[in-house]
């Protein structure tokens, strides 16, 4: 994908998520690798509904800002995924409602944040790690992601929002939407004793689709 096309795609996908209420106001941030090894990043204080392709923050392959507006303050999160996951071509962070609500409940499994409700939640995300609360922009968030040593493609920041890395920007956006959908199902069925996928069914999915699964 050319850089011009990538800029347009980032803004198109961001607006789609904003229009459907997956992140509101000036929340959320998104980044993607360019062909030369650099990054395009949503600027600080911008809305997903009104990103300007020409004003995206542009980093070169050495991590130096070379164009566009100042980047999101959550750059430590993005950098940590790119540094620890060689397959990461894009990173998305949202403040999506149901995933944040689920992160606030007392009996959620921090090592396996999402219950095994659908095959696609497993196929697109693997196991999601719930990280503790950090102040927005705190470099410690990036340190926490680095501490996972690249074993997770998705994390949930408690009381804050999900962060997902994907092979490209479309894959990352699809995966983070799956995370929010699964969290919504978990909230909707809470207390109803729903039928989850069995361990055997989960293992069959992992084997059949060669899913990255950190034990």
From TrEMBL:
What EC number(s) does the entry state?
4.1.1.104
Query: Can the keyword Metal-binding be found in this entry's annotation?
Result: yes
Q: What is this protein called?
A: 3-oxo-tetronate 4-phosphate decarboxylase
| A GO MF term | lyase activity
Task: Name the cofactor(s) required for activity, per the record.
Answer: Zn(2+)
Q: Which InterPro entries match?
A: Aldolase_class_II_sugar_metab, Aldolase_II/adducin_N, Aldolase_II/adducin_N_sf, OtnC
Q: Has keyword S-adenosyl-L-methionine?
A: no
Enzyme class name:
lyase
Reaction(s) this enzyme catalyzes, per UniProt = 3-dehydro-4-O-phospho-L-erythronate + H(+) = dihydroxyacetone phosphate + CO2; 3-dehydro-4-O-phospho-D-erythronate + H(+) = dihydroxyacetone phosphate + CO2
List the keywords (alphabetical).
Answer: Carbohydrate metabolism, Lyase, Metal-binding, Zinc
In terms of NCBIfam families, this protein maps to: OxoTetrPhDc, PRK08130.1
Q: Which domain of life is it from?
A: Bacteria
Q: Which family does it belong to?
A: Belongs to the aldolase class II family. AraD/FucA subfamily.
**One matching Pfam family, short form?**
Aldolase_II
Q: Which PANTHER family match?
A: 3-OXO-TETRONATE 4-PHOSPHATE DECARBOXYLASE-RELATED, FUCULOSE PHOSPHATE ALDOLASE
The UniProt function text for this chain reads: Catalyzes the decarboxylation of 3-oxo-tetronate 4-phosphate to dihydroxyacetone phosphate (DHAP) and CO(2).
